[in-house]
Amino acid sequence: MEKQKNLDELIQTAIDGVNHINSLTSDELSKWLKSLKSIPPNIPVGSRGTQLITYEGYRALQDFGIAWRETSPKTKRLVDKEQAASFAVKVFGDMMDGKAIEGTPGDQKAKKVFKLLLNERLDALAAPVLHYYPCKIFQNSFEDEFNIGPVNFYARKQWLELIAERSEETEEIANEVFKHWFEETEVSTDRAKGIIDFVGDYDTIACLEVEGHEAKQAEERAKTVCRLAIDGLGLRMPPHQFSNIRSVLNGPFEYVSRRYFQRPEQELSWGVSWNSFGITGEVEQNIRFIQNVESHREILGVALETFILPDAMNDKARMYQQWLEALLWFGEARRAEHSHISLVKYGICLDVLTYAKEEKGIKELASLLLGMDVNDEIGTLGITLAKLVNKIYKEGRSQISHGGRLALMEDMPMSRYQADEFTASILIEYLYCLHSMKDDYNYASFLRDIPTLRIKVREIY
Fold this sequence. Notes:
- This protein is α+β, with helices and mostly antiparallel strands.
- It has helices at 2-23, 26-35, 55-69, 73-78, 81-96, 108-125, 156-164, 168-183, 190-199, 215-234, 239-242, 283-292, 294-308, 315-335, 339-353, 358-370, 385-401, 416-436, 443-460, and strands spanning 42-44, 50-52, 129-136, 146-148, 151-155, 204-210, 246-247, 256-261, 269-274.
- It has three domains: 2-125, no CATH class; 127-296, no CATH class; 312-461.
- A five-stranded antiparallel β-sheet has the order 4-5-6-3-7. It has a two-stranded antiparallel ribbon with strand order 1-2. It has a two-stranded antiparallel sheet with strand order 8-9.
- It starts with a helix and ends with a helix.
């Protein structure tokens, strides 16, 4: 009841703030405006323009939005504090515009309507939205759709069919774009030109539907999930292939790179290099790759789902999200221009996986996931597991990021390709074991059962 009373008091303060301004004479209003050192607080009220309000009233509306956000898990999930504050101001203005009740709010009915209107608008914000992100996965693309869990990848023709199904108006635009792409006709509408510019030279569109989140949050989650889907697919390919993947989410699409230089007493020189993007290989080879990683795509998709589902998370889902955080750093490491920056990010990736257990925790996790002692030599690298982790985490991540080691134009503690190979193998093993464990496990339980989980993983995959 106390929380309800506080919310009612905040609304009343906002109402009083409006009524006070409206009660001022012209001279009093002019004097008040001149006394202000900034733009006067005001509320947008639709067709009526704006409504002035006292500072106390405006702050009360913002405080109401923040307090109202705390009243339910659903509200907290849909909007952050800043959005909740702005949302309350906007809905209050809509109510004053007569969209909820006639006249200026000023009684108990207005308070009740304001709260109802807030919840109605919030439900409308959470409607499902399909987000689109053009990308270039393969140099020689194929027409077959494929998915990575909730993220679907369509060729241009399939995507146009998809958007055409959603409305008659979109169908006309899609047909115009189709004729331009496949019949080389000219386009006449701005909407069609906009789509063509949006897709650009990309030939594949990543699509993800998100619901149960406010529009801004939904877009951020969609971007993140689609980026992680591509990064997760990249775990099954070497870094030089992954670097050829492009999307609107993580890098420019420039076919031509130019450079200019000049030697003493010589004319300006220049050079041009042509860039080819997308994973190389024939169409049949690319199709086989997608088919061969079907299980990987399925498991990765389960992890991605936890990032967009609005429901409360169990311990296993939280571990999936922890893994996704690590994958985000892995993708950034691969995209880093400088080797020392990539080494720092590989180290952060491994640290995130262990819940910040640092070098000791990384050694323990890697030893369990790879089924080897920390003093055993790892693969063809010629160094022990313990030494490898030390080079990535202590000599790389810690010393470089904290300024204990100069990195620019200096030799790195180890090759970024060795760090990439090791980190990718840990991420893959971790994900597959995590997928095989029980829902009520936490990280400590996970570590304990990794030897058993590894056996299960080998039997299934």
